[in-house]
Amino acid sequence: MIKNSILITAALVVGGACTSEKVSETVSERVGDPQRVVVEEVHTRPNEVVQHEPAQTARETIKLAAGESLLGVLRRFGVSAAQGVALVHNMKPWLDLNKLATGKAIQVTQDERGALVALSIGVRFATIVTATLEEGRWKITESTLETELVNKHVKGIVGRSLYSSAVDVGVEVEVIQKAITVLSHRVDFQRALQDTDVFEVLYQSTELHELNPLSKKSANHDVAFIKLTVSGREHVLYYYEEDLQSQGQFYYADGRSVQNFLLKTPLNGARLSSRFGHRKHPILGYTRLHKGLDFGAAVGTPIFAAGDGKVIKANWGGSFGNRVLIEHANGYRSLYAHLQSFAKGIKSGQLVSQGDVIGYLGSTGLSQAPHLHYELHKNGRAINPLTLNTSNFDSEPLSGPNLTAFLQTVARVEAQLKSSTISYQSKLALNHVLKEN
């Protein structure tokens, strides 16, 4: 099945090929166990969606409330404690049912008496696991939802913020974060952007052919082209991978890498509330050197690693509250303070890459209001991140066969952009999708 999708307003979707995955399972039985799990092996034809339709009179999708457990939900539908424990055990190869997040969607099917006969839950994008209760035993089946590849071309004005405007026209959050992270190498998002500046992005995503409440609607967002016009100056970037073993990067059209040694700002959508230099401390009341920058934003805003490096500290830091200290190359260190919490896996000794989420903005320690305190040090001395010049550490531009291959990539992207017809609206109000067979 081939589909073309056109997103009208500030977005255009062109091309699209259906994809499908064969469902494969293993069969495992624990002999002698009255609650043994039987995993059904299901084979599907290309583009076929597996459906499980036990005898039923009602099916509903519920979401876990705060403080609610799956076992508590099961009891409401007549599932015994022993059967609930067996289900948790049998589902472990796919998902730990004891650690479901608040808001997790679960689909339950009941028979004519109101008793639960099946439970379905999403375990990853486009993958659903269904547990069917048959004669007191759970039969577990994994199925894959039909997906399609869709190319999206989006253009619009920055408006009140780049993030909010892109969300308004349906750009996936992962794509927005990628674009802002990449552009943060060259653009100061706290000072440089104007509400009339223009952004543009071309990317491909894998999307569900039909929406399903148990799975997010899209995944695997591969960004090929980013353009941001700031006060008349264009930043035009193309994604290129030198080979299958190397990590791809974004480059200007002449082969120069956009990636800088350190990001100018380590978070999105924030305002610069306090600069580097001497100031009167708002809590202590006396004047002293403010060794970094303060960024005001909402509690929980993701904080990024400013550059590749190793986490030296990720713990309580007294007046800094929860803080992360990262050691970079060339004698640089970066400090992130007053965090609400640390990102998963962030601890002393952990290696991080530029743009990785290391924590979330908060107001811990000696802090009047939610903000990020960000410091940069060179050989032990605090320096102003906004005036940092790391051009000496920029990577060499592409050359030789790599440059030739990259220029071919640029030509392909430009041809795709020219073939797209964008319905551009300054207010980015309309969001309608047309699909043609």
From TrEMBL:
Q: Pinpoint the Csd3-like second N-terminal domain residues.
A: 148-276
Taxon lineage: Bacteria, Pseudomonadati, Pseudomonadota, Gammaproteobacteria, Alteromonadales
Q: Which Pfam families match?
A: Csd3_N2, Peptidase_M23
Gene Ontology CC terms:
cell envelope
> Whose protein is this, by species?
Pseudoalteromonas luteoviolacea S4054
Q: Which UniProt keywords apply?
A: Hydrolase, Metal-binding, Metalloprotease, Protease, Zinc
On whether DNA repair is a keyword of this UniProt record, the answer is: no
PROSITE patterns the record matches = PROKAR_LIPOPROTEIN (PS51257)
**What's this protein's name?**
Uncharacterized protein
Question: What is its subcellular localisation?
Answer: Cell envelope
The superkingdom of the source organism is: Bacteria
**GO terms under biological process:** proteolysis
Q: Where this protein primarily resides, as one coarse class? A: other
Segments forming domain M23ase beta-sheet core: 289-385
UniProt cross-references to Gene3D superfamilies, sorted A to Z = 3.10.450.350, Glucose Permease (Domain IIA) (2.70.70.10)
| Record InterPro entries | Cell_wall_metabolism_enzyme (IPR050570), Csd3_N2 (IPR045834), Dup_hybrid_motif (IPR011055), M23ase_b-sheet_dom (IPR016047)
What is the required cofactor set for this protein?
A: Zn(2+)
One molecular function GO term is: metalloendopeptidase activity
